Amino acid sequence: MTTQSSTEVVLLTVEGRVATLELNRPKVLNAMDVEMIFSIVEKLHEVADSEADILVIKGSGKGFCSGGDIKSMLATAASAGPEDFEKMMNKINEMMETLYKLPLLTISAIHGPAAGLGLSFALASDYVMAEAHSIVAMNFIGIALVPDGGGHFFIERRVGEQKAKKIIWEGEKLPVAKALELGLIDQVVEGNFEEAVQAKVTEWLNKPTKTMLETKSIFKQMHLPTLKNILELEKQAQFKMRQTADHQEGIISFIEKRKPQFTGK
């Protein structure tokens, strides 16, 4: 699998103590393809070496991130072997681990949809805020796959195992008011979203950020081994699920825009 990292699909700006990482594939609601995932990793390493204390993550256009780019994955599936799949999953895992242990305070600013891998990516931040009319979904179940990108880890940490299983198994499109009620996200904004994000950034800038980052580091050291284990388990599970008849049916039904007929095989 050949990849090329581009500054165009992921935009990083650093202004003083505040950095912004913007997913920039608006025509596909910022769905993550190979190029974007590699570019995100590159930009996260870059911002880790900057002078910024806070990173805001957002999406361009009408959505935060609709998840993995299924059409892009299908286009390369015919030529991609097991080694290519493993490389891709390893890069997803690197992306999520890098974001989780980033030595900055992180805020995910969700507008529009945040689904699948896009939701895992958002939940890896320290604080998740969403525009009032946004939708979140852990919708891997629709194509008979398990969540990846640490989805099991991040949801379970926020809502507990029982609610996590319900969210994952139902794959429901959740209004952010419901997600807030469940504890999945931290804040819903009814008014001007950009102003609310800036207000949160300003609030944190006026706090002792080094102290906050020390607390983050303590939690990271407590939980990073678990995250790494879950990322590996998700990779193994995803490989197995890709071999199932239900996954093939899920993909075909997605292409044909119809409800899948799963058989449990």
Summed up:
The chain is α/β, with parallel strands linked by helices. The chain has helices at 34-48, 70-77, 82-100, 117-123, 151-159, 161-170, 176-182, 193-205, 209-241, 245-256, and strands spanning 10-15, 18-23, 54-59, 105-110, 113-115, 127-131, 135-137, 174-175, 187-189.
Explain this structure to me?
The chain has 265 residues and is an alpha/beta fold. The chain has helices at residues 34-48, 70-77, 82-100, 117-123, 151-159, 161-170, 176-182, 193-205, 209-241, 245-256, and strands at residues 10-15, 18-23, 54-59, 105-110, 113-115, 127-131, 135-137, 174-175, 187-189. The chain has a six-stranded mixed sheet with strand order 1-2-3-4-6-9, with helices on both faces. Strands 5-7-8 form a three-stranded mixed sheet. It starts with 9 loop residues before the first strand and ends in a 9-residue tail after the last helix.
